Amino acid sequence: MQAVILENIVKTYKTKKSVLTAVNDVSFSVEEGELFGLIGPDGAGKTSIFRILTTLLLADKGTASVLGFDVGKDFKAIRDIVGYMPGRFSLYQDLTVEENLRFFATIFNTTIKDNYSLVSDIYRQLEPFKTRRAGKLSGGMKQKLALSCALIHKPKILFLDEPTTGVDPVSRKEFWEMLKRLKAAGITILVSTPYMDEAKLCDRIALMQNGKILKIDTPENIVSGFGKNLYAIHSENMFKLLTDLRCFPAAQNCFAFGQNHHLTLKEDSLPLSVLEEYLHANGHTKATIKKIEPEIEDCFMHLMKNSSQKELLQ
User: Fold this and answer.
1) What pLDDT, in 10s, does the model give residues 185-237?
2) What is the longest distance spanned by two Cα atoms in the chain?
3) What pTM value is reported for the model?
4) In the chain, what are the domains?
C-alpha cells in the first residue's frame, strides 16, 4: 500500500510585491515502510510539502493523501496517525524533558509507559537529564527529545523536517541509526535534509529545487545514471581556475567542490590533452586532473543546471 500520495500539488505565498511559488506541480508517492528523503537546499519547498501532508497547510491545487486519508477532508484522522518533527525546536522550553514527553503523550490519550518500548533507545540517553528544562539541552539532546515526543503516540508515519540541521556530526550519525531502527519496526519515514551525504541513507530520494522535483529514484540509481565522465581539477589559483574552466569551449558543467572543481565535458571522447593544453595556456602549469566517481551532490548540481537551461529555452 502507498502510505503517501501527492498529485500535482501547488502552493504559493503572497508577498507585498509578488507571488512566490513554493511547491510547483509536485507529484510523488511513498510506500509503507519506506524511508523516503526530500533532498534540497533552503527554499526548495520541502517544508511546505511536509506541512501540507501533516494538515498544517492547505495546497492551492492538487490532491494529497496519507494512508488513504485526504489531507483536506480527513485532517483529524491524519493527525492521529502521524508524528511530525518540525525544523525548528518547537517543544516547551520551560518544561523539563520528562514534562514535555508526558504532555505530548497526554494529548494523544496515552502514557509514556504504554509506548515506552518505541522510544526506549532514544529516551535512555535523555533520562540523566529528565529534570532539566528543554531549553537548556544541547542541540543533539533537543533533537532526541523532539523525536521522542513525535513518537510517543506510536504514529504509523513519521515526518522529520531537516532534523539534523545545526547538529554535530556524532549526533547526526546517532540520529540516522535511530531512524534505521524505527524503519525496522515498521514505521514509514519521510525526512527532509539539505545535506547531500544523508541522501544515500534513504531507500529513495526526491531531489528538489525551486519547488520542483528534479528526479526521484534510489540513491544508487541516481548516481549510476549520471552518465558522464567526471573530473576533479585542482590548481594553485582556484578562483581563476573556476572561471577558466567555465570558459573552456568543451566544458559542459563546472562547480566548486571543496578543494577541487568538478568538471564534465560535452563530449567524453575529447582527449584530456586538449584540456591540459588549455589550462597550461591560461597559466595553470601545476594543475592536476583526476577522473572520479560522482556523488549525489554532483548529480544534483548536474540536474539543477540542466533544468535551468530547459526553463530558459521554454
Assistant:
1) 899 999 999 999 999 999 999 999 999 999 999 999 999 999 999 999 999 99
2) 73
3) 0.89
4) 2-223 (3.40.50.300), 227-293 (3.30.70.100)
